[in-house]
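Researcher: Before we compare anything, I want clean individual predictions. No alignment, no superposition, just each chain on its own. First chain goes here; please echo the sequence and then give the structure tokens.
Model: Echoing the first chain and its structure:
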Amino acid sequence: MARIFRHTFTVPADAIDVQGHTNNVEYVRWMQDVAVRHSAEQGWSMERYAREGTGWVVRRHAIEYLLPSRAGEELSLLTWVAGFRSHSSPRRYLFWRASDRQVLARAETLWVFVDVSTGRPRSIPKELSSAFEIVQNDEDVLEGLLQGMP
């Protein structure tokens, strides 16, 4: 079970805006992509959600941009589940540049579990919530990075 999921990638040239750094829309896209990857690794692929007639929708994104990223830079995007409520789950993210050991952005998305046929919130089944280990303290993630993990 991946307590903290890590995806490393190189910022593509088409992610850069007119100001010469990564466009904020790209961060949101990367957050969605890494959440899907983490879920699939834990046994909850998009195909599984579709078979069960369920899925996740975003209620809220919050991103704190600390430093810019640029084309060609290698970044790690880490994500973890910060908790479960009856119908929702906050997921956190940290954008990390290993070359200078800098946090570029911190983010959180509040995901709502829904029945796709009605679009209405649905209770998160125990089978789903038990597939993820909760990480409540963001500092554990940063400490792990500074020690060369996760």
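Researcher: Okay. Second chain, same rules.
Model: Second chain and its structure:
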Amino acid sequence: MSCIISAPSTNEGKTTLSLLIACWAFCHNIKLQSFKVGPDYLDQQQLSSIGHPLCRNLDVFMCGEKWVKKTFFDNAKSSDIAFIEGAMGLFEGLGSTNYSSTAHIAKILNLPVILIIDAKGKVRSLLAIFKGFQDLDKEISIKGIVFNNVNSIRHKKLIMEVFQAQKVKIIGFLPSNEIIKLSRGNLGLVSPYESDQKINIQYYSHFAEQNLNFPLLIKFLKTKKNEFKKLNYQNYLVKNKYKPIAIAEDNIFHFQYPETKEYLNELGILSLPWNISKDEEIPKEAHSLIIPGGFPEKYADQLSYSKKSLHSLRKFYKKGFIYAECGGMMLLGNSIVNKKGEIFKMAGILPFSSREGNLSVGYRYIKGYKNSPLIKKNQIIRGHEFHYWQIETGTSKLTKCLDKETSFKSPWQIKSWGTKYKKEGWANKDLHASWIHLHLPSNQEATKNFLNNLKKEN
């Protein structure tokens, strides 16, 4: 059947429950395929770290319903069990709508929902929460509930009394536990790439076994075989003998969907890792470079001392094509200024400095402002934005090491729900850098434009 794990709001225990199930399955040698609703990188990385096949993102806004369906069925069919971890509250979608919400995913995949609710300080009010979610949309089927932060036998007994007349299965009661409390940063969970606190899989599995009804839960997790064919990127991409691409990937730059490398491989394009945290040079074989998002602000001092990497990046810009997202764009700027006002030099390719600002998060409609490596004038694509940092221009100058003509313009205009378009990003014929994250493999227009900028073998 498979199911969706959701909640009334964020921070009620969705990821904790998801990780408990993943660890239990791993310890019992059960093949699990997990999924995450929305553009989230960090929850996806946590679930992928357990040892099962990579967790996959399901995002209707960026990828479309067809892509979501095929991604789910193509990956779930080869597993024993599967679940989808929702995002935020069950009905939170684009703006004030239900579009691209966890509930939207439940509908298009026809999957039941298991609701996890924070029970701290509540008993009968839990029923009001459940009934409200049950009655808001009759097309959503809430089949089970897990109650979080239930710390006494009496609390558990009272909740069971309140729900005894309801046609919903109580799957478990999770007590508060500091060991399974997940570390958080300003953008959400701390990534396993940058944390020394590894999940104790054996402990999580034992905790799950003690507090969840797995004979009941497993009925919701078992997968159904289906007739969906394997997703083939070549259906809409022309296969050529492209020259290799380098991709920055380490504990600093890791905000990347796994499908990106997969579609490059599908097209026969060799991707080469570039580890800036080890002060490596860009692989000499590479003729294009992708720098994904990440946390350069946390490692600004280390990056500024990565002299070989920064020199290699400046040198590469004179000959190759660079595509950078969010934190990758910050690396291309002149400097990063930390909270103490300390300035750390970056690559100096783009004329700005980065410093902490207000949170900018959400889906973005994107309209081409001029022809650029990722978008053509008036083309419409979709992406998302997620950062606390801002860029400052006007006082910065490009480093003297660049002898190449550098004329950058905004490649596109972006807007969110209820706002107006504004110019954003930096581009010329050899570079595209922006705060925006894209899901390239599902975005046909952007992908075609991207591939047209890659050098081909003779």
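Researcher: What stands out in the second chain?
Model: The radius of gyration is 23 Å. Additionally, Residues 142 and 337 are 48 Å apart (CA to CA).
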